[in-house]
């Protein structure tokens, strides 16, 4: 399996590589993510056995950016908590971004 491939299992989880920037910073870092049971787990690489971060998504909101700055901003979606930007994510293509947005939206509600 390539590192950019997104995998969905029967349990409704999704995993794959995304780029992430924290809050309003513009530096992107490629990481591996797993969303399962309404928790987003972050791994430095796909092969890691233990997540470096875990973030329960209940109470968060997933949004598309209000403005796109150019082609590099395509496929970007953002995670907010109480109207404060928490993370921005960038997927390799629109299809992957839409799958992550849908999965995260489901994970933000009971």
Show the helix and strand layout.
Layout: E1 7-8, E2 14-22, E3 29-36, E4 39-43, E5 53-56, E6 60-63, E7 76-81, E8 84-90, H1 94-107
Task: Give a concise summary.
It comes from Notothenia coriiceps. The chain has 110 residues and is mainly β.
Describe the structure.
The protein is mainly β and 110 residues long. The chain has one helix spanning 94-107, and strands at residues 7-8, 14-22, 29-36, 39-43, 53-56, 60-63, 76-81, 84-90. It contains one helix and eight strands; from the N terminus they run ββββββββα. Strands 1, 2, 3, 4, 5, 6, 7 and 8 form an eight-stranded antiparallel beta sheet that branches. A hairpin with a 2-residue loop joins strand 7 and strand 8 (84-90). The protein is globular and about 35 Å long. Mean pLDDT is 85; it is low at 1-6.
Task: Please trace the helix and strand order, writing H or E for each element.
Answer: EEEEEEEEH
The number of E-state strands comes to 8
Instruction: Using the alpha-carbon principal axes, give the shape.
Output: globular
> What CATH first level would be assigned?
Mainly Beta
Q: Report low-confidence residues grouped into runs of 5 or more.
A: 1-6
Organism: Notothenia coriiceps
Region (Disordered): 1-24
Protein name: FYVE, RhoGEF and PH domain-containing protein 5-like isoform X1
Biased composition (Polar residues): 1-18
């Amino acid at each position: 399996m390539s590192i950019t491939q997104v995998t969905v299992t029967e349990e409704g989880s999704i995993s794959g590589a995304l780029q992430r920037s924290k809050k309003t910073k513009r530096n992107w870092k490629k990481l591996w993510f797993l969303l399962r049971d309404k928790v987003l787990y972050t791994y430095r690489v796909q092969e890691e056995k233990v997540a470096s971060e875990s973030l329960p998504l209940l109470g968060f909101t997933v949004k598309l950016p209000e403005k796109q700055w150019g082609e590099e901003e395509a496929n970007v979606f953002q995670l907010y908590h109480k109207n404060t930007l928490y993370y921005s994510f960038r997927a390799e293509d629109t299809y992957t971004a839409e799958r992550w947005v849908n999965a995260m939206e489901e994970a933000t509600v009971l």
